[in-house]
């Protein structure tokens, strides 16, 4: 699976703008799944699931990752071709579709993250330290607003992705039996108006 796939057609943008298809795509970014498995997840008929899978496959957003035979029936496992998508500059004449496809993916990622939080084990949410320092907690939950130029944001983002790669590589280099799986969802986007009105405390510069 590629890290980033370039979207080169207007039809690809329209396909990603469909709320349900972007939900399917997010599931198939996580792992390969069959039409039957997806129909059980979304509680929809296999026929409807296969229709949407074929549309995603036609526009080269998913592919058949593997096939398995079970009880004489060949099962096809579909998977996203990439972990992320970005529109080619040639699609700039279609800004509405570009914005809507990104918006739908973000919304569906938020909904998927909500489900991951709801299904997290109880121990993941037990904070025993009692510390007022969030960096001491064993989970991460925070929201921020900052003033920055676009150049500032992009420069910081490079450092952020490098930091995530560093965390990912730690267990690859030194595997530990105590290692747990951590799920991250990051969202950084320009907004029209700030919602956080942070007042400075006395003595704070």
TrEMBL record:
Instruction: Name the InterPro entries for this protein.
Output: ArsR-like_HTH (IPR011991), HTH_ArsR_DNA-bd_dom (IPR001845), WH-like_DNA-bd_sf (IPR036388), WH_DNA-bd_sf (IPR036390)
Q: Which SUPFAM superfamilies match?
A: Winged helix' DNA-binding domain (SSF46785)
Sorted keywords for this record are: DNA-binding
> Which residue ranges does the record assign to the HTH arsR-type domain?
11-91
One Pfam family assigned to this protein is: HTH_5
Q: Where is the signal peptide?
A: none
On whether Nucleotide-binding is a keyword of this UniProt record, the answer is no
DNA-binding recorded as keyword: yes
The UniProt entry, under Gene3D superfamilies, shows: Winged helix-like DNA-binding domain superfamily/Winged helix DNA-binding domain
Q: Quote the protein name from its UniProt record.
A: Winged helix-turn-helix domain-containing protein
Its source organism is Halobacillus naozhouensis
